[in-house]
Amino acid sequence: xxxxxxxNESERRQRRIFYLSKHFGHPLGGVRIAYHHVAVxxxxxxxxxxxxxxxxxxxxxxxxxxxxxxxxxxxxxxxDIYVIPEPWKYCLQRFAEFPVRRLVFCQNHxxxxxxxxDRWSFDDYGVHQVFCCSEVIAQYLQDxxxxxxxxxxxxxxxxxxxRPAPAKKRQIAYMPRxxxxxxxxxxxxxxxxxxxxxDVPWVQITNxxxxxxxxxxxxxxxxxxxxxxxxxxxxxxEAMASGCIVVGFTGDGGRSYATAENGLWCTPEDxxxxxxxxAQALGDFDRDGGRCWVEAGRVTADQYTLDRxxxxxxxxxxxxxxx
Length: 323
Prior knowledge:
alpha/beta
């Protein structure tokens, strides 16, 4: 969904929208999502930009969006809307001093208390609205903070980037960033417990562009999901869209989409069970390409489209700029 409704364009451009971010030195799904929000908003006539606290733009994502820098020269207007990541205590404190509209975009409930620290709730920072990206986060915010209205903008994946290659390779793709020690332990336990698969390559995905990740997943038979303390967890969904058999952990946030049919989901710290699940996945791949797992994963991934994400972004912000 693209384009601008001319009748609403003037209203949309009356207020500036800034998503705060910075350069982390490696690709992060949450940063990618923020960039995507800003790209969508600009396509629909909103005055939106990334506001970088360190002045360095990430180069891992193939999106061209307006960028501003948080510096002494940055002029704050009363009509501005600032979107602050949930763990950023300093920015929550500083922007509480200005007569602007303050929103928190919570992409990971596990990091909430880094931002709140000694505060009881975001009300103490004068935050006007908290929105999020998954049912798991929304439920936590409702249960613990008694928030009645927690809008969800569901993440979408680019199905042109994440799709099966013409032929799959008998290999296991994995992203070890959040479970570096565990990934080695699982791999070596698996090789010794199931020596018939000891020669199956493990392809590490680290510091790759989105297109490169899509290429690796597209040609891999199995994806080892190593999510931990996740608010949502994009990689397993991207792997499903890429035709991988998914094995591993939801990281909590993945409960938004994980089912008994679309992945061999493992109990955290059940290392033997995880090794056995990997062996089952490879056995199923050797037998029929893991057809049942792959098909169920595709059906799940098809629900998380960029079109749906775009519709939800626009609907949320159309209401927000009128407040």
